[in-house]
Amino acid sequence: MLAKSVPEVPEHAKVEGGFSYEPKWDGFRALISWDGTDVEIGSRGAKPLTRYFPELVAAFAELLPEPCLIDGEVVVARGAEGEQRLDWEALSQRIHPAASRVNMLAEETPAMFIAFDLLARGDRDLQDEPFSERRAQLEDLLGAVPHPVHVTRTTDDPDLARRWLAEFEGAGLDGVIAKPLAQPYAPNKRTMFKIKHARTADVVALGYRIHKSGEGVGSLLVGLYDDEGRLHGVGGVSAWTDKRRKELIDELAPLVERDADGEAVVGETDRSRFSASKDVSFVRLRPELVLEVRYDQLEGMRFRHTVQFDRWRPDRDARSCTFAQLETVTSYDLGDVLD
Known about the structure:
Layout: E1 2-5, E2 19-24, E3 28-34, E4 39-43, H1 54-63, E5 68-78, E6 85-86, H2 88-92, H3 99-108, E7 111-121, E8 124-125, H4 131-142, E9 149-151, H5 158-167, E10 175-180, E11 190-195, E12 199-210, E13 217-225, E14 231-237, H6 242-252, E15 266-268, E16 281-284, E17 290-295, E18 298-299, E19 302-303, E20 308-312, H7 334-338
Parallel strand pairs: 1-11, 7-9
Antiparallel strand pairs: 2-10, 3-4, 3-5, 5-6, 5-7, 7-8, 10-11, 12-13, 12-16, 12-17, 13-14, 15-16, 17-20, 18-19
């Protein structure tokens, strides 16, 4: 099941049977299969994750009371007790080709699993059951299972869900999910609703990547200045139409940095385990063009997800685009979310 974005927490009257509301966890979506002998951890895109989380494989084999198929999220928490929050960067580091590294990280940054749906229990297929029944079965199955397996909290109170949206971001969570109580499990269909923070920021265009088709701008790289005047890359803007991608090449041409021979200066962004085989080169731009973008949250010094173009800001000076403009999120202990 997938979720469609909506701007605010919906009221029960929006769907027949009303909603169950729950926190939106920021991790790897995973399906856990336990047949009583073997554990398999699969991603939403069907990529096997089993080898990257040996500590979870061991925990599932020991703790799950019977064969089952569970939908949930693999997350990593960091921080001192009472000050923990989700750490996306630590989680992403867990995807590594070397077995020795995988085992080391399993000890240094162990993952936990947040269960939020149950698709099968024993020989019983629950996918055609309404979510209210699947949730009851999930609580019955895992209610007494200890860490690192958790069942996400839920509420039927939309006002409490709105409070969670405001507070839980401080623990690294990603928003709120509203699930129709009367609906069956619907693979790959957007039957749920997700509510995330909507914020804007003025950023500086610092480069662009050519579209994979070879024509036009694929993504526009953007940055912000820190207190010491250093420009940091914070993310990228994409989703241009074919026509707009080609127009941007001409519009950005006067800002392209060029060497002594008049050739465009090319840079490279850092590679990650998710971009090891991708072209990370980009055409450098003089940091003069300002644009306003929409984003949901900041993770460290980067926007957590791809940001959306809102408008150009020719009235803004590039040097005024600093981290100081961004909303500061109040810290919230992850332990209080799990309780």
